[in-house]
Write the structure tokens for this entry.
Amino acid sequence: MIKSITDLEVFNLSYQLAMDMFNISRNFPREERYSLTDQVIRSSRSISANIAEGWGKRIYENEFKKHLVYAMGSLEETKTWLRFGRDCQYIREQDFEGFSRKCDELGARIYKLYENWKTL
């Protein structure tokens, strides 16, 4: 039974991804502080923040689902910033591949939740 936001696996996965993005971005060059670093942190945090906001409005099924769509959008944005990090050689290919797998898994889980959520 889901009693709180932390009982949602997609929330926990998205929160962990945001923390991973924070940690990897600490190794980016200082000149990226207000561009790539800021963007990847913001977009990754937005995933779990949107899931949480939607959860708070879950009595309205369409509101919760709308926020899941926003979370999917933020996930795609995060994936784009990751590509920039890799292509600028701030993220090793091996790390990029690991993050990509995490993002793909998270996206599939958010979509599945979107498809299956029914407000009681």
DSSP finds four helices and no strands in the chain. Residues 61-87 form the longest helix (27 residues). Residues 26-116 form a domain with the de novo design (two linked rop proteins) fold (CATH 1.20.1440.60). Helices lie at 9-25, 33-56, 61-87, 93-116.
